[in-house]
Amino acid sequence: MNITIISVGKLKEKYLKMAIDEYSKRLSRYCKLDLIEVPDEKTPDNASEKEELSIKEKEGQAILKHIKDNMYVVALDLKGKMISSEELSNFIGDCTLGGSSHIAFIIGGSLGLSQEILKRANYKLCFSKMTFPHQLFRVMLLEQIYRAFRIRSGEPYHK
Question: So where are the chain's domains?
Answer without folding.
Answer: 2-41+50-152
